[in-house]
Specification:
CATH class: Mainly Beta
CATH topology: Lipocalin
CATH architecture: Beta Barrel
Number of strands: 11
Amino acid sequence: MRKSLTLLAATATLAAAGLAQAAEYKIDPTHTNVIWEQLHFNTSTNRGRWAKKSGTVQFDRAARTGKVELTLDMTSVDTGVAPFDNHLKGNDFFAADQYPTATYVSDRFVFDGDKVTEVQGKLTLRGQTHPVTLKAVRFNCFDHPMLKREVCGGDFEATIKRSQWGVNWGLNMGVPDDTRIIIQVEAIRQ
């Protein structure tokens, strides 16, 4: 019995130590881009991004765990064409007046060895929340030579059905439902 209690205490101590190793990272907005791609009547591809974004990441390589929260300012959508940006901010698409932010929250990272292969989370857009899994195209951590701190990041992507979030404009005219999301992210250890 005493050995069992000692083993249980040691296991709890190791588990707590593993949790204590999770590091906090702040998303670097100058090295983070969130881009969407939408086919335009199956002819060309419309692309846009959100200029304002913020968030945090908790990452523990040893325990193979992670958490992320990314917030997008929906009023900062930028396609390079002001009238199109205004249409996207309106009720046909993002309804940015009513829903000024969108969030992606995850507490499940999938690893292959030390590398993150996907992030499973939930996207809240236009007041609706649905699961979205981001596939890691690449992932890496490095010691930043100028910041003198660890930076982790990568390229992540997913294809979503925009209609799940009530973004239905153009579906009846042949604009596809599938929208590709590409997230290039770097986060600085705090």
